[in-house]
Design goal:
The complex is a heterotrimer of chains A (about 260), B (about 350) and C (about 260). Chain A has about 260 residues and is mostly helical. Chain A contains 14 helices and two strands. In chain C, helix 1 packs across helix 11, helix 2 crosses helix 11 and helix 3 crosses helix 10. Classes of the chains: A mainly alpha (about 260), B alpha+beta (about 350), C mainly alpha (about 260).
Chain lengths: ~260, ~350, ~260
């Protein structure tokens, strides 16, 4: 349905149902859409990278040193995320704002003399908020894949002469790659299309493609263009995901 | 006695797999009947066909001279003890046992009495309120039995009921099941892959391979007169020696390197007789005799391997040919033991030799 | 080994603090007497909570949200039961494909789900009201319901069903006496998770709601009024506690499901 719509034209409230590629041409040639697409991808990929990077040691710690408190750790990690996504992102706006919690706190402690500005209403703010917001979605799959590693494999690799670091890169990391790939996809796919976060903390420099889709849809009354943008982003996301999976194919075989 | 369960030329395929490939059986009322075979031979499928969980691809099942063609499992006069017992985890012992009574119009007080009787029968008196999760494997087994027997089925089907129990408990349950069957007089059909279980418990045994019944006989006949090499080696152990027919009248004269020329009764010959035959003998039908013995037809050989099993010792003996004999010797009072490399003399019970066609 | 353990632990705790920090602000500032959300704190008040009591629109949004959450979680769970029952017991061509297809919304960006639904509804000429939000949320929750119910049904030993039939019970009786009681914890978990998801969901509701707003849409509109911020924080605090209670209940049922089923063997 949306696919069809993307080939039509809308003039205010009247739909012209003749087939056209104009929406796609517009979506791919207009600098503003190009900018939004590339910014969405940049933000999303950065978020994915940092989230996985931070989540891995956490998952590793829980899996290997969690002892009998693994369940408790996992529970602690998930609790904050059962609050509304909307509220959490709103809280980041409150925290990062010019007169926000972070700045006022640092000013109060006299650690800074004037408010920090590089963290509000731009891509960085969006990245920070999303990295926070999607953390458990990275920790859990990585944790699961680490848990699945047969501990006797680690003893075997030690027995065969690997030190802790070699062991990590030769055994643990390759075996946990399915979890890492899963985590990356789980974060990358939805964050590309996130609407709330850029709208709340992104300012104008941090807006992403989803905001434009919404604008085209409701305010600009150009549903076909919005549909074309949706389809395009879906295709781009699918393409990147598939490439990503293919690159890591070697690691995704079942052991 | 009458034929209670009749399986008539039943086939059952799952896609390309022919699980049951033309089976006909008659099971008499009051029998303890076993379906024995290696895993994947179709014995469980056959049991499920009788229970009604599977429908035959072709062929028919009759119970009590009634065709079971269009009769659903819940309406058949059969009850089943499942391999994993299938005790309902959300119900206690009493509720599990009384489960099937709900569909029979009996008064609550009568039901309670029946439950108590059933529990007593299987030795679980007083555990009425115990939760299903708190039961041991053996107890679950008994609950499963009580739950099925309380409905007084014409046939009780048991799908490898003892395979999950440890050895001691399994042996105890084997004898209990046998006694229980005699006490209630219900026809039992047991599926098992354990040949000793089948031999010790059953009145009759059907051995199945690849979806077909290879032999159907009493336990004694099955062991003493297996009708093929395959059955012979599945049930117990047997040594096979190549032989050649040298004469035939009302008996068969067979020449072989180890036994020389021997005479075999026609009743002990299986398969099409051809020039070449295979002779089979059970390990315990050969005895080691003292060197001083002057008995005739002695075989001399040299021990090449010894396996000690406690009550018996198995010897592998080379008799100067490429074939070796396996001998099982009871470690009873006065029995000498031998070690590898020793030269010994053997006496085979020639009347117990069986001839199979090649 | 020991030293790296210590570093890891420090990292883990720091990370945990980072994860908790925003949520902890909610209760702090919802009791702070200043209208501006900033340090230093100025004093203790429960005024923001009291203010919530007199918000007519809030009450209406809350009522709408509850209606949507209840209906969509019930619909999704019923559909989830049917789908997983079909998937776990019957084989049909394209089974794997249709399962993947049903689960697709799980990974689609919500905005796309929202936009597509909106287009479909407009094309069909259906009005936008609470029921369109219910439809959207049912679609959103269904994959979760199916996953939960699937694992509930797959853990259900088929021989229990056969045993019931064998003991003379009819297929319908078996469903009522054996299957339902055993997957009941799964049903509760699906209902609770669905309820919570729907209660929190913003984008789809934002797109599909007509004049009747749901709670998240209402909160979204509050963000534009700085004066309302502390009250919003207070509302957030309440929501966190409600979510926590619902989810703990869900977890409890999930564990009970796991417990009754693993002990079958």
């Amino acid at each position: 349905m949306m696919f069809l719509l993307s080939f039509w034209t809308q003039d205010y409230l009247i739909l012209d149902k003749t087939f056209t590629l104009n929406n796609y041409i517009e979506a791919f040639t207009q600098p503003v859409y190009q900018l939004l697409f590339s910014r969405s991808l940049y933000i999303s990929l950065t978020v994915t990278f940092f989230t996985v990077l931070l989540a891995y040691p956490m998952a590793y710690f829980i899996s290997f040193y969690g002892g009998n408190r693994k369940a408790l750790w996992l529970f602690l990690i998930t609790i904050p995320f059962w609050t509304s996504y909307l509220l959490r992102m709103f809280l980041w706006k409150v925290i990062l704002g010019y007169n926000g919690v972070l700045n006022s706190f640092l000013l109060w402690l006299e650690m800074i003399t004037e408010p920090l500005t590089f963290i509000l209403y731009n891509s960085n703010a969006v990245i920070i908020a999303l990295t926070h917001g999607w953390a458990p979605f990275a920790i859990l799959p990585i944790f699961v894949s680490l848990e699945k590693i047969d501990r006797s494999l680690l003893e075997a690799s030690r027995d065969l002469g690997d030190g802790p670091i070699k062991q990590f890169f030769r055994v643990i990391l390759p075996l946990s790659m399915p979890g890492v790939v899963g985590a990356a996809l789980i974060i990358f796919i939805p964050t590309v299309g996130d609407y709330i976060t850029p709208k709340l903390v992104g300012g104008t420099d941090g807006l992403m493609i989803a905001n434009m889709i919404q604008v085209q849809f409701s305010k600009a009354n150009n549903a076909p263009l919005a549909a074309a943008l949706s389809v395009s982003s879906l295709v781009i996301v699918a393409f990147i995901s598939i490439v990503f999976v293919l690159i890591n194919k070697k690691h995704l075989r079942r052991y | 006695m009458s034929k209670l369960v009749q399986v008539k030329n039943v086939f059952k395929s799952f896609g390309d797999i022919h699980a049951v490939n033309g089976v006909s059986l008659d099971i008499q009322e009051g029998q303890f009947y076993s379906l024995l075979g290696p895993s994947g031979c179709g014995k469980t499928t056959l049991l499920r066909l009788i229970a009604g969980f599977e429908k035959p691809t072709s062929g028919q099942v009759f119970i009590d001279n009634t065709s079971m063609d269009n009769i659903e499992p819940n309406l058949r006069p059969t009850n089943m003890v499942f391999q994993n017992y299938a005790i309902f985890p959300h119900l206690n012992v009493e509720e599990n046992v009384a489960y099937g009574l709900r569909n029979k119009s009996e008064k609550k007080s009568d039901q309670n009495k029946l439950v108590d009787e059933a529990l007593e029968l299987v030795g679980l008196s007083g555990l009425n309120k115990r939760s299903a999760n708190a039961l041991s494997g053996g107890q679950k087994q008994r609950v499963a039995l009580a739950r099925a027997l309380i409905l007084k089925p014409k046939v009780l089907l048991l799908d490898e009921p003892l395979s999950a129990l440890d050895k001691k408990l399994r042996e105890q349950m084997q004898s209990e099941l046998r006694h229980l069957q005699r006490a209630v007089g219900i026809t039992f059909i047991l599926v098992t892959h354990d040949q000793y279980e089948a031999l010790t418990m059953s009145d009759r045994v059907a051995v199945m391979f690849d979806g077909k019944v290879a032999q159907e006989a009493s336990p004694r006949d099955l062991y003493e007169l297996p009708n093929s090499q395959k059955v012979a080696s599945f049930i117990g152990e047997m040594t096979f020696i190549k032989g050649e027919i040298v004469g035939e009248n009302k008996n068969l004269q067979v020449q072989s390197e180890i036994f020389g020329k021997i005479t075999i009764d026609k009743s002990r010959v299986f398969g099409q007789s051809s020039k070449k035959m295979v002779l089979g003998i059970r390990p315990e039908k050969i005895a080691i005799v003292p060197k001083t013995s002057r008995s005739k037809d002695l075989i001399s050989g040299k021990i090449i391997d010894v396996s000690y099993f406690g009550e018996t010792t198995n010897y592998k003996v080379s008799c100067g040919t490429i074939e070796t004999l396996t001998i099982s010797s009871q470690n009873s009072v006065g029995q000498l033991s031998y070690s590898v490399g020793e030269e010994i003399q053997l006496k085979a019970d020639m009347n117990n030799i069986i001839a199979f066609s090649v | 080994m020991n030293r790296s353990n210590k570093y890891l632990k420090t990292f883990a705790i720091t990370y945990l603090i980072f994860l908790y920090a925003p949520a902890l602000l909610l209760p702090i500032f919802s009791f702070n007497s200043s209208q501006i959300i900033a340090f230093p704190l100025s004093g203790f008040t429960t005024g923001w909570f009291k203010a919530l009591l007199y918000q007519e629109t809030l009450h209406e949004a809350l009522r709408n949200s509850l209606i949507v959450a209840a209906s969509s979680s019930i619909f999704a769970t019923i559909l989830g039961i049917l789908a997983s029952r079909a998937a776990s017991r019957y084989y049909f061509p394209g089974k794997q494909f249709s399962l993947t297809f049903i689960l697709a919304p799980l990974v689609l960006p919500e905005i796309i789900v929202g936009v597509s639904l909106l287009i479909v509804l407009i094309q069909l000429g259906l009005p936008l009201n609470l029921w369109s939000v219910v439809l959207g949320h049912t679609l959103l929750i269904m994959p979760f319901s199916i996953l939960i119910m699937n694992s509930a049904f797959n853990n259900l030993d088929i021989s229990l069903e056969e045993a019931s039939l064998d003991l003379g019970e009819t297929p319908i009786g078996t469903f009522r006496r054996i299957i339902l009681p055993l997957v009941y914890p799964g049903i509760m978990a699906s209902l609770l998770l669905g309820f919570t998801l729907s209660l929190d969901e913003f984008i789809i509701a934002f797109f599909l709601t007509g004049t009747e707003t749901t709670l998240p849409v209402y909160i979204w509109s509050l963000f534009r009024f700085p004066k309302q911020l502390p009250a919003t924080m207070a509302l957030g605090t309440i929501l966190i506690f409600v979510s926590l209670i619902l989810l703990s209940l869900g977890e409890y049922f999930r564990r009970r499901a796991a417990k009754t089923q693993t002990s079958v063997m």
